Amino acid sequence: MQKILIVDFGSQYTQLLAKRIRDIGVYSEVVQFDDKISLDNVKGIILSGGPDSVYEEDSPTLDANILESKLPILGICYGMQLIARKFGGKVETRDVGEFGKTTIKITNKSKLFENTDKEFNVWMSHKDVVVEVPDGFKVTSKTNNGIIASFENEEEKIYALQFHPEVKHTTFGETILKNFVIKVCDVNETWKLADFVDEKIKQIRKTVGDKKAIIALSGGVDSSVAAILTYKAIGKNLKAIFVNHGLLRLNEAKEVENTFKDYFGIDLTVIDAEERFLTKLKGVTDPEKKRKIIGEEFIRVFEEEASKETDCEFLVQGTIYSDVIESAKSGKKTAKIKSHHNVGGLPEDMNLKLIEPLRELFKDEVRSVGEILGLPREILYRHPFPGPGLAIRIIGEVTKDKLEILRKADDIFIKTLKETGWYEKVWQAFAVLTPIRTVGVTGDRRNYGYLLSLRAVDSTEGMTADWSKIPHDVLDLASRRITNGVEEVTRVVYDITSKPPATIEWE
Question: What is the pTM of this model?
Answer without folding.
Answer: 0.66
